[in-house]
Every structure is written in C-alpha cells, then in structure tokens.
C-alpha cells in the first residue's frame, strides 16, 4: 500500500516524462520498466539522484549551481 503523496508524485513525474519524451528518454525508461518491473518514475528518480550525487561529489554545490545557471537559460533560449 503506497502513500497518497507518493502516488501523486509518481503520477506527476509520469506526466512530465510523457510530455517531454525525447528529453527524458521515455522509450528507454519504458523498456527498463518492462525489464525491471519498477515504475518509470522510480527509475527517473534513481537516475536524477545518481547524477546529482556524482556532480556533488566531483565539484560540490558550486559546480552544481554553475551547471544549472548555464543549462536553464540555454534550454529556455532554445524553447
């Protein structure tokens, strides 16, 4: 039995993944979901957590904020 807030978060992540299929590699996540039996949202959370941990361990919070300060404006300019 899952917590309602967890189910709500999983549903929002699924909607986000479906809205941006090329950005989030939706097809690959769907394949992983079939192979592992875990929801796409859990896999997405795991990948984001792993990438954040790697960035934080390599360069700390300054590197994380520098990357975010570069990527977000670049993404918005292409959008």
If you had to describe this structure to a student in words, what would you say it looks like?
The chain is mostly helical. Helices cover 84% and strands 0% of the residues. It contains 3 helices and no strands. The chain has helices spanning 4-19, 26-36, 40-78. The longest helix has 39 residues, at 40-78. It starts with a helix and ends with a helix.
Question: What features would you highlight for this structure?
Answer:
single chain, 79 residues, mainly alpha, 3 helices, 84% helix, globular
Short description:
Helix 1 crosses helix 3.
Number of strands: 0
**Stretches where pLDDT falls below 50 for ≥5 residues?**
none
How would you sum up the major sheet?
none
Mean pLDDT, as a whole number?
84
Structural class: mainly alpha
Residues in helix, %: over 70%
Rg for CA atoms: 15 Å
Q: How many H/I helices?
A: 3
- Characterize the overall form: globular
Task: State the distance separating the first and last CA atoms.
Answer: 39 Å
Note the run of SSEs as H and E.
HHH
- Percent strand: under 5%
